[in-house]
Amino acid sequence: MNWEILGALGEIIGGLGVIFSLLYLARQISDNTSSNQSAAINDLTNQIMKITILDDAAGKLFHYGLKGLDNLTDAERLIFVQRVTAIFLVWFNVHLQHQRKLIPNEFWDTFAGDIASYFQHPGIVDTWEMIKTGFPEDYVHYVEFSSAMESRIDYLAGSY
User: Fold this and answer.
1) Nearest CA to 123 among 46, 44, 51, 65?
2) Residue among 114, 112, 121 nearest 146 (CA)
3) Which of 33, 1, 12, 22 is nearest to 100 (CA)?
4) Given pLDDT bands bounded at 50, 70 and 90, which one contains residue 11?
5) pLDDT tens digit string along 101-151?
6) Counted domains in the chain
7) How far apart are alpha carbons 77 and 98 in whole angstroms?
8) pTM (2 d.p.)
9) Could you tell me the residue range of the domain that residue 129 belongs to?
10) Distances from the Cα of 6 to the Cαs of 13, 27, 53, 90, 143, in angstroms?
11) Is 25 part of a structural domain of the chain?
């Protein structure tokens, strides 16, 4: 066996090692992406739960606020607007994380329906008109596009 053959074998083995290393690295990146997506979904779900799980009094105030801001006192209006703003901030967080590919499309796709459902209520529409100037233009367009969709669900169906 001469040195040229041994050198060629060494290069082939080294090349295969590089290919296997790259495949392993690609797998690790994919696993890390999945892990990050799961963490982002879990965090967003927890945020939504904190905002929407209400005690009885807060739930009633939110229910009345959905019917329109005119149904509320000044103090109640402030509380309602803050709660709705928090919901829009969570949706904005989802919007940003989707743009950065931190959450999968399957999770993202559910939010347009949620927005459409909320926009069936005058209090949400009124509040959005008050707060939308505080959000970036692309998010405002997304919300307004989603709000115009036909809602497949009404969380408060029959409650009026």
Assistant:
1) 65
2) 112
3) 33
4) confident
5) 887 888 788 878 888 888 989 999 999 999 999 999 999 999 999 888 876
6) 1
7) 31
8) 0.68
9) 36-147
10) 10, 32, 70, 61, 65
11) no
